[in-house]
Design brief:
CATH topology of the domain at 77-227: Rossmann fold
Shape: elongated
CATH superfamily of the domain at 77-227: ABC-type transport auxiliary lipoprotein component
Helix content: 25-40%
Number of strands: 8
CATH architecture of the domain at 77-227: 3-Layer(aba) Sandwich
Structural class: alpha/beta
């Protein structure tokens, strides 16, 4: 009798367990809420911020006077009639669109810029006076018998296989009373080889181009006549 009773109890326990599993829809594990055949949506990956563009190595460099030549090396300047002339060199004007853009390396694209935050106009004024004085012309700050006004039209080096400089000025000369006695364009160029995208090569090419532009101006007979007081 006892064995039959225990068997009945065991059978009832098994039946209750089966019924419980059927009601919960599981065999003792937690039921999934995701429909069969689908997966949970992946979390969107974080978008990496685009790295900030590093400036080229020759952006915002200082302007440096670094000539490899001189006015005298281009030839003799005839100073006949200029011994009593006092030249007043007014501050050079610079109306270019990108005043600080002074060169570029075009060997690869996009081209690498060469820029400066220094004043090209102030740089040009200083060295214009220096070169005139070095050529033997008397330069004064005010009260000149001839007044020289200059405007930068080009001040640039383009680097491909070589460095090619181009410096140009629009020039006018007035007498002491303000009368225009001469106007014209002067320019100079320079070409040099050197290691790619090096500041010293840009400095040398710009300086040598500048010197040639001043030599060409001083070598112009009409300009010298204007300085001497002729019309």
């Amino acid at each position: 009798m006892m064995n039959n009773g225990m068997t009945a109890v065991s059978a009832m326990s098994v039946a209750l367990l089966i019924a419980g599993c059927a009601m919960t829809g599981s065999s003792g594990t937690t039921a999934s809420t995701t429909p069969a055949g689908t997966s949970k949506p992946a979390k969107p990956a974080a978008t990496a911020a685009a790295p900030a563009r590093k400036p080229d190595r020759l952006e915002n460099i200082p302007l440096v006077w670094k000539p490899t030549t001189s006015v005298a090396k281009f030839g003799v300047i005839d100073l006949t009639g200029l011994s009593d002339t006092k030249v007043q060199i007014d501050p050079v004007a610079d109306n270019r669109g990108e005043r600080g853009f002074i060169g570029q390396n075009s060997e690869k694209q996009p081209a690498r810029k060469v820029t400066t935050q220094d004043s090209v106009a102030a740089f040009a004024t200083e060295h214009m006076k220096e070169l005139f004085s070095g050529a033997g012309i008397s330069v004064v700050d005010s009260g000149g018998s001839a007044v020289l006004k200059s405007e930068i039209q080009q001040f640039f080096v383009d680097e491909t296989e070589t460095y090619k400089g181009d410096v140009r000025f629009k020039i006018s000369v007035t007498d002491a009373g303000g009368k225009l006695v001469w106007s014209g364009i002067t320019g100079g160029t320079a070409t040099r080889f050197g290691r790619s995208y090096k500041a010293d090569n840009y400095y040398e090419t710009l300086s040598d181009s500048f010197i040639q532009a001043v030599f060409n101006l001083l070598h112009n007979p009409g300009f010298r006549t204007a300085l001497a007081g002729g019309s």
